[in-house]
Amino acid sequence: MMKKPDKHTVENAIVDFILILIACSFGAFATVSIMLPNGLTSGGLTGIVRILQCFLPLGFSTMYYIGAVIILAVCAITLGLKEAKKILVMSLMYPTVMVVFERMNFRLLEEKDIFLAAIYCGVFLGICNGIAFSRGYSSGGSDTVAKIVQKRLLPHVSLSKLLMGIDVSVIVISGFVFGRNIALYAMITTVIISKTIDLILFGLATKIVQMEIITEKTREIADYIMNDMDRGVSIETIIGAYSGKEKEKLLVLCSPREGILIRQHVAKADPRALVTSIHVDSVWGNGHGFNDIDKE
């Protein structure tokens, strides 16, 4: 007999649906009402669709929907159904909301202004991704493509480097199609997206987060942090006051976005793990990817 979902689970599902709908609305508005009318582009799937639009006689939302479904299918085949479930909701909802905004035919700016459009597009897309990431969802764009490439082609390259490589490659190709200026504006949009995501997730002051992870899968998660995130990690032995048992705790310093990826991996590897994350004002350390200790 199938177990009936409890009230808390149903409430969480409703809240998730509402928040993801809001996130998709922000993203669709940024794309349809700001980016496209001003001839801009960006990285990821959006940038790929913008390039293909120059060669195929299909609408943006239609092509985006096809691309999202293809990524979803490849993700299910290569990474498994569990990973595909994370992008299923937004892969279907996002292009659907985009169609609605296309029919509304509304533009944010009264006249074409590429600089303003690049800024506001970055802000609204950042809000979209920030809300989605905060609820553990993904739109199935370049982050999913990076995971697929890593698993099938480049297992020794960190996920963050692959993600950056894909976005930069799409923007560079956009420069040949739309011109160098549009590609440079796309870089501005991409930076603003990243900063807005960090703002949504961690507030104004956070540049570095310190994560502590208590888990039964210590070695597996440590390998992921070192190999995929290209970050150092420490392992400490702790003793539970109530049980008196020894456990291992992971300690890692990373960027807010890397922290989200680590948390998602921990949730998949060990759902019973305990994860804490706090913002750090400054970190110094030569050769560790942080500020030089002798220069600040």
TrEMBL record:
Cellular localization per UniProt: Cell membrane
InterPro entries the record matches: DUF2179, N-reg_PII/ATP_PRibTrfase_C, UPF0750_membrane, YitT
Every DUF2179 domain range: 231-285
Primary location class: membrane
Entry keyword set: Cell membrane, Membrane, Transmembrane, Transmembrane helix
Transmembrane regions listed in the UniProt entry: 12-36, 62-81, 88-108, 114-133, 153-176, 182-204
Listed name of the protein: YitT family protein
